[in-house]
Each structure stands twice: as structure tokens, then as C-alpha cells.
């Protein structure tokens, strides 16, 4: 490999030639501002237009005013683009307890409001589960209104132990049939489990009836059929009918189940509909009802009379005796309504068939076995002392399965009917929150812990022992015991680790002058970016030893490498032993030539080497005092009574299984960058040191990476490893490089990364060939504690 330039920045001619040869690589592209200021896209524009340019440009376009954006559009944009400002406050103990108290107070306040409101609701409940009826089966109940019940008064029926949420029950319905599917046959009703045709219940519909049940399903089969007739006797002794509005608009104002009766033409008794469908629901909810004509008459139960027809098989079957040709439709009753004293027929106030309000309400299945459903609304205020008489035609059996049923008269307010459970639950929830807040405060008072202290973390199975050790260090006053990443000093197992701040500033002119005075070359050969006070130190006070990496020693090693003369003859002053150092110098040329450079001059000391450098007045090259690539064999400075021993077989000297174990926590970490330079847009040169302190060892990786575009990749790595409890430090130093301008050159970086991934940190797997080099030195530094 030919030697290369030493000069920090090549001559102007070389830079121009380099840029012409390498096109736009390495340039900083700046978008032109010409179009913003009325100039053509190809014209040159300053970063900021002056008034003269704006005034003298005749082709300048007039910039339109930016339209005003409304606050609503801006707010919508911020919400949709997720650009709203936000904050995440630190959740301290006091703040957490305050939030808990506030939330508990809100729950208690809202629960009290609900409870007071629920107690203000007036409610009368009449249980008639086991009350026997008269000879006609009518149950009579009476009650006295104790407090005023302002209109509207809601009428509910309440059922107990009715499990409408059973899986088979809740799915036994066909919604298409409820919407008017009068032409559906048995095969279309698979969802109506166990109750699709009349022969599924022969004791009710007869042995020969095989028609489709309309509607089908277990929910429809168990529909609530009790009817209520209410009258009121006021304080003057006068009786009056207590009208209950049962219209679908009042009972189910927002129905969750859509139902629709068949067309009236299909319900004519001679229609084909009755030959295929058993419209049994007409007997329960007919178009007309037979009710008492006045409040003094006790209702007598009646049912819709039946007539016969023939099905498709010619069997004689029954159907409801209703006439749908009249307006409104009418029905005959058994016994006839006209034969009952004090009774008359009226249009069903709740609707008929599938559109009956009580049927639609029943089809909405509740989640709990004890529930209540609305039956109607009384638009009248009930006064204290009013006597309410309720006649119940009890047709729905609850005793057979141990259930219960009752009638409820109730008022309502802003939160609905009487519901003490919600208010009581909120009060209990709020009380628990308050108790939790008190516990948080008392716990913090008795066992206070520092927020963010990692000493409380359990990292692995050795966590408790580690926590005890860290607590002892903290009590002993050792600096920042495992406090956080980036702390300037940390102690563990007798070792003291120190480094510059991770955000160390770039050295200014004064600091560069100080460094220049300590180095055998001037400022021109100091990298563009050196970091003020950049250093990393590892010391053991009990043994009087110290390992350090700092910018001054590293740059001095750059000069050593360039000049080819070691400053000392031992391995403790910042590089590998002298004999190894000289061997590397014989195999690795110390100069690097830049591709695309034009101003090249021969090195008078070596005819085979060319360097890029400025010329003097006699047009003779002036050799620089340092390597312009800042290549260095710097491997750290070891101070103190060390004993150095070279390791003959370096394979396996580093415990890679521990270094790659991700289950181990990092107690302390630091990263220091000594310098960084872009080599006048010809590549990059960087020196970075990283330190990790783990539960059982510490590990240092110092990396010098050089990339000369199109010419060379060079990677110099120093690894230091010490296992706690031993008295030795292993140093593994490797110099790898690869030419990129020769025939058959391969991507060296990929090759190195592949080797490291296989656990190879030296030269294993990187066989040298033409244009490549790998040089490795491993040694052991021993010490004795006092």
C-alpha cells in the first residue's frame, strides 16, 4: 500500500481535483432559495436576501399573504397530527396520594348524590307470586299511597330467578322472522332451538299440527302474559279507572328488537298463511281486548276464540278467530265479551301481534336473573291517601321453578328510578380510595425510599446480595453507587472508575493551544473535533495502580506512529511493546494516499512512498509532523507497579460468554470520544472508549476507526478485561486493515463484523491476503494489593 498524505487539509488544487474526481461525494447540499425570492432556479441566492436584491430584481414575484387559519382548524390539525403539547409529571408519593384522594372524593360525592336522589324516588312494590286468585283466577291487590307520586308514574313488573341470559335461551330466536318473514319455512329457522314448529309442543297445539310457529324460539315461547287493570279511590271515596299508557312509544321508545306484523291481506282467514304458519301470538296479544267498562267491575279473564282451517297435509288445525278485513281488526272471545256484565271490547292499547309493546320489551333479554321491565306509564299524580286497586289476570307461572313476580309503581328523577346499588357502590369505592391514599402516606412515612434509586431493583437471582452491597456503599459515602449512567465517578469491589462527562464540549482555541504545547506538532495537525478534558480512568488505590485513556497521550501516540520512533521501550506508556510495535510498522506502511488527489510529491526518504503536502517556495514538498489520518497504536496508559507478561496463545483469553450475556445488569457505563475528524471530506477518523462495570467484572473497549474513501479501512481495538477477585488485567490489542483500491478487495467491515459475531475478537477467521492485514497482541498485567 502506498503512503499517503500527512497534511491536515490538502492544498487547494488537490481539494479541487478531489471534488471533481469524486463528483458530489462529501459535499453539503443546500436547497436553493432562488424560487422563494423571485429568481430562477439556477441563479445563485444568498442565505438571506438583502434589500438590494429584493429591490433590483425586476422579475421578482409578489408573495401572496398567507391565509389566516382559524383556531378550530389549527386545533383539529394538532389533534389529528398528534402534535398537542403534553407533559408527564414525576409521580411522587404526595402526588400519587393526592390523585387518589381526589378520585376517592369524587366517587364519594357522586355516590352520595345518587343515593340521595334514589331515596327521593317514591316506589310501591306489590308481590303477587303466591297470592291466590278468585274463582276466575284474578288476583286482587290494594295499597295506600303514603307520599305524593308526581306524574309520570311508571308501572313495572319485576321477575326473580328468571335466567334469560342462558346460552341456549338467548340464541333461540330468528330476527328475520320477527321483521316480517311470514314466508319462512322450517329449514330457515335453525336458530330457533327446540321450538320451531307446532309439533315441538303437541300438548299445546295438538298432535297433527306441524305448521311453522310464528314467532318461533324459546324467548317468544316464554313471553310474559300477565295483564293488569288499575283503579284508584281518592280521599272523597270516588273510584276511577287508573289509565295506563301501554303504547309502544311509551313502553319501548327506542326498541332494540325490530318487529313487523304480516300484511293484513295474509291474515285473512282464507289466506294460505294459516295453512303454513301457526300465528299463536294472536291469542296472547290480539288486536282487541275485553276489559271492564267501569272501575267498579272486577275483570273476568277471556281468551280469543279459535276457529279451524286445514294445513297443507289436509289436517284440521286451529287458529285465532280474528277478522282482519274490518278496520280496525276485531276478534271473537270465549266466552263472548258481550255476555260478560260490565265488559266491553277495546282496541289493544299496547298493539297486537309482533308489534305489541310488551312482546317487544320481552324480547330484550337482561343479563341478571332478577330484573324489571316497563309495562306502562300513568300520566297522573297520585296523592297521599289514594287507594290503588290492582286486578291481575295471572297467566304466567313463576311458582313452578321457584321464581317470583311483582308489580311496581315508581316515580323517576334525573338518574332514573330507585337504584341504591350504584350510589352505595360509588361510596364504597371512594372510601377504599381514601384508605389507599392514607396507606400510601403512612407507608412512605414509615419506610421512605428514594425515588429512582436503582439499588431497589432485583436484576437477577443475586439481586438481594447486590442490593445489600450497594446500600453499604451508599452508607459509606462512596460516590454515586450505581446511581445512573453517565455519573463522573463510581466505585465497586475496590476499583474507582472515572470519566469525563458524556456531553463534553469540543475544545476551544485556548484548550487546543494547551494540547499543542504538550505535543511535538502544531495545531494544523490536531483533529477538527477534540473534546475538552476527554478521559477515562480506572484505578485501585490499595494497589497503587491506574489505567487511563486521555486525548494528550492518544495524540502523542499518533506522532510516535508517524515518525516511526517509540518514545520509550516498555509497554506501559500507551502502546504495545516496542518489538511488537516495530514489527507492525514493518508490515503496515505509515502513510496513506488519498484517491482522487492530484498534487502528489515523492517522499525523499522513501522513493516508493508518495505523500500529499504543501510545497515551499522552491516547489519542494514539506513533510508534515504527524499522520493526517491520526492512526495510532494507543492502547491505554498503565501507571503503577504492574507486572507485564505476554500471552503466547491469545485464543480464549477473553470470556466472550460473559461479555455477551444479556441477563447481567450494567452497574455503570461510560462512553468517551477523544476525537473525530472527516479528513477534509476524504473519509473519517474517530477514537471512542467504552467502559462497562458488571456484577462480576469490568470491561473496556477502545476503538480507533479510520475510513479513507476508496482506499482503506483500518480498525484498531483495545480490549481490557478484569474479573473481580483476581489480580490481573487482560489486554487484547488488534490492528486490522483492508485496502479498498486493489484488485479483489472485499468489504472488510462486513468481514470483521461477521468474525465478531462468531466470537472472534482477534485475527481468527480473517486470513491475510494481498491488501489486508491483521496484527494481534495479547498480554496480562498483574498487580498486588497492599
UniProtKB/TrEMBL annotation:
Renumbered residue ranges of the record's region Disordered: 1-61
Biased composition (Basic residues): 1-10
Membrane topology reported for the UniProt record: Multi-pass membrane protein
Composition bias, Acidic residues: 45-61
GO cellular component, one term: Golgi apparatus
This protein's UniProt keywords: Membrane, Transmembrane, Transmembrane helix
Pfam family, one: CDC50
Origin superkingdom: Eukaryota
Localisation per UniProt entry: Membrane
Residues passing through the membrane, by range: 93-116, 421-441
Principal localisation: membrane
Tagged with keyword Transmembrane: yes
Family (UniProt): Belongs to the CDC50/LEM3 family.
Protein name: Uncharacterized protein
Species, as recorded: Perkinsus olseni
